[in-house]
């Protein structure tokens, strides 16, 4: 079988891999990209409901989780959201800001994939799909990669294989196996940005509320996110819950403020003074979804006229509304998780070049690394930034 020789071989045709390939190609490097999937950029295509939340203008290192929190700073500082926006505008892709700095395509995420592929082609990059890797070896002259489409020989090898989230899109643990093969430690992985499941009494009490949505503030382990929550037939979802899920693990306390930004006690006292003849469930239905208000009064709050609720009970009710203890039993897992927490330990990877400190010429980028962003375009910005950093040197 013939040998395909190149300067840089990128395994993984996702966001980070394509950015790395185009950047290296622009430097005159001969670049090959291979992916076991049948088309490139699958997670890009499905992201943002098909509109691709391609960056966040407020991106900072504080928006990422890692055992090594300083690791992401260098790459993020060198390739900012504005660099990527410039490329998007140059390709004539219309976009809009949804909320909190989140930028989406007006039309389709297919435009982002086409832009990346076009940039790769302009830089002379060759992309091969349906090209699974069978074996990777390192010799004195570089890397030898055996695949379903032949034997590749490259001076630099870039691992951009992603994490374990959404296996239906082709996610596997291959990148972690490769890292271990070359002596790298892989930190424990788990699903992130994922719906939480309920069981027992909480599930019974919330079961009939499926479809109810409301703004909340979710709090766990000293972190809080204010956004919307959606009650599902299995548990809870929505942006606030997806965000907090990355900080929550089984057994951790999870609290919800059901009236974020409001003074629940002040409001209850006012209702007692002004609407004393009304039932609590009635006034509560004016500030919360009605089905939820009724359920709260059935199981947790006084189900009586507001004037009949004394001051200690008002305080108790206010505390419950602003500090609701929800016992989650688990997550929906990698099946629906947007990202994978954990991954290749960054302490043996250069934060400026993403090159392995153990194996010269080997680079790790994207979700395979122990760096995970918040919901809202941060993970894409990380992919662009680390892909650009590795592609500038590989």
From TrEMBL:
One of its GO terms (molecular function) is oxidoreductase activity. Residues 7-392 form the RsdA/BaiN/AoA(So)-like Rossmann fold-like domain. The keyword Oxidoreductase applies. It is an enzyme of class 1 (oxidoreductase). Pfam families: HI0933_like (PF03486), HI0933_like_1st (PF22780). Its EC number is 1.14.13.-. It comes from the Bacteria. Residues 190-339 form the RsdA/BaiN/AoA(So)-like insert domain. Its cofactor is FAD. Keywords: FAD, Flavoprotein, Oxidoreductase. The keyword Chloroplast does not apply. NCBIfam families: aminoacetone oxidase family FAD-binding enzyme. This is NAD(P)/FAD-dependent oxidoreductase. It comes from Stenotrophomonas bentonitica. The lineage of its organism: Bacteria, Pseudomonadati, Pseudomonadota, Gammaproteobacteria, Lysobacterales.
């Amino acid at each position: 079988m013939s040998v395909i020789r190149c300067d840089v071989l990128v395994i993984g045709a996702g966001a980070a891999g394509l950015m790395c390939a185009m950047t290296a190609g622009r430097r005159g490097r001969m670049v090959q990209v291979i992916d076991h999937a049948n088309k490139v950029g699958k997670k890009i295509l499905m992201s943002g409901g098909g509109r691709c939340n391609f960056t966040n203008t407020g991106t900072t290192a504080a928006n990422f989780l890692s055992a090594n929190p300083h690791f992401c700073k260098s790459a993020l500082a060198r390739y900012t959201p504005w660099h990527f926006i410039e490329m998007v505008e140059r390709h004539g892709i219309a976009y809009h800001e949804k909320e909190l700095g989140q930028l989406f395509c007006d039309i389709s995420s297919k435009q982002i994939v086409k832009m990346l592929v076009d940039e790769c082609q302009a830089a002379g990059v060759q992309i091969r799909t349906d090209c699974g890797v069978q074996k990777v070896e390192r010799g004195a002259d570089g890397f030898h990669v055996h695949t379903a489409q032949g034997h590749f020989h490259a001076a630099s090898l870039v691992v951009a294989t992603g994490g374990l989230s959404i296996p239906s899109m082709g996610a596997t643990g291959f990148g972690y196996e490769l890292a271990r093969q070359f002596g790298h430690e892989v930190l424990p992985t788990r699903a992130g940005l994922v719906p939480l499941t309920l069981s027992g009494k909480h599930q019974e009490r919330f079961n009939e509320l499926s479809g109810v949505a409301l703004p909340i503030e979710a709090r766990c382990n000293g972190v809080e996110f204010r956004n919307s929550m959606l009650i599902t037939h299995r548990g809870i979802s929505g942006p606030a819950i997806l965000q907090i899920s990355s900080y929550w693990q089984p057994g951790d306390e999870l609290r919800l403020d059901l009236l974020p930004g409001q003074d629940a006690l002040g409001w209850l006292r006012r209702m007692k003074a002004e609407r004393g003849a009304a039932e609590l469930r009635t006034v509560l239905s004016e500030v919360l979804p009605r089905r939820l208000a009724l359920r709260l009064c059935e199981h947790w709050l006084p189900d009586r006229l507001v004037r009949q609720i004394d001051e200690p009970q008002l305080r108790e009710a206010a505390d419950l509304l602003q500090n609701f203890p929800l016992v989650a039993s688990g997550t929906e897992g990698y099946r629906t998780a947007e990202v994978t927490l954990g991954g290749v330990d960054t302490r043996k990877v250069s934060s400026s070049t993403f090159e392995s400190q153990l194996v010269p010429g080997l680079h790790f980028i994207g979700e395979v690394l122990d760096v995970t962003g918040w919901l809202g375009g941060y993970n894409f910005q990380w992919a662009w930034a680390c892909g650009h950093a590795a592609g500038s040197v590989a």
